[in-house]
Amino acid sequence: MPPRIILLFSGKRKSGKDFLTDHLQKLLGDRCEVIKISQPIKSHWAKEKNLNLNELLSDSEYKELHRLDMIRWSDEMREQDYGCFCRAACQSAVEKPIWIVSDIRRRTDIRWFKETYKDIIRTIQISADED
């Protein structure tokens, strides 16, 4: 059963995307699944480099040490197939009526979702002051 609606959250780093999507998940309960495009990136990177996946998934200094290399590698992968990480994240998603994608960063991510899931896509851009 495909989802009935997919909410794509975008915004700059530290803008509150995770805070908001975690809160939405609590409100919606079992009806929703939160999907993170960064999950397959970090999973592959941890396995390839023999790193601690939980630390890469956290908001830690450990992740920051590996951030630039992960970004470079993921950009190279996206040049070959712009939807590779979106596809991987969705393949491991639990079937629920509402999907919340909490970490849209690129226009090509939105493009892939719109091409794949058509008119059930809604985009939400988060903007916040640094204060």
TrEMBL record:
Recorded GO MF terms: ATP binding; phosphomevalonate kinase activity
Superkingdom in the source lineage: Eukaryota
GO cellular component, one term: cytosol
Pfam families hit by this protein: P-mevalo_kinase (PF04275)
Keywords assigned: ATP-binding, Cholesterol biosynthesis, Cholesterol metabolism, Cytoplasm, Kinase, Lipid biosynthesis, Lipid metabolism, Nucleotide-binding, Steroid biosynthesis, Steroid metabolism, Sterol biosynthesis, Sterol metabolism, Transferase
Localisation: Cytoplasm, Cytosol
InterPro entries, alphabetized: P-loop_NTPase, Pmev_kin_anim
Top class in the EC scheme: transferase
Keyword check for Ribosomal protein: no
A Gene Ontology BP annotation from the UniProt entry: isopentenyl diphosphate biosynthetic process, mevalonate pathway
Metabolic or biological pathway, per its Swiss-Prot or TrEMBL entry: Isoprenoid biosynthesis; isopentenyl diphosphate biosynthesis via mevalonate pathway; isopentenyl diphosphate from (R)-mevalonate: step 2/3
EC annotation from Swiss-Prot or TrEMBL: 2.7.4.2
PANTHER family with a match to the protein in the record: PHOSPHOMEVALONATE KINASE
Protein name: Phosphomevalonate kinase
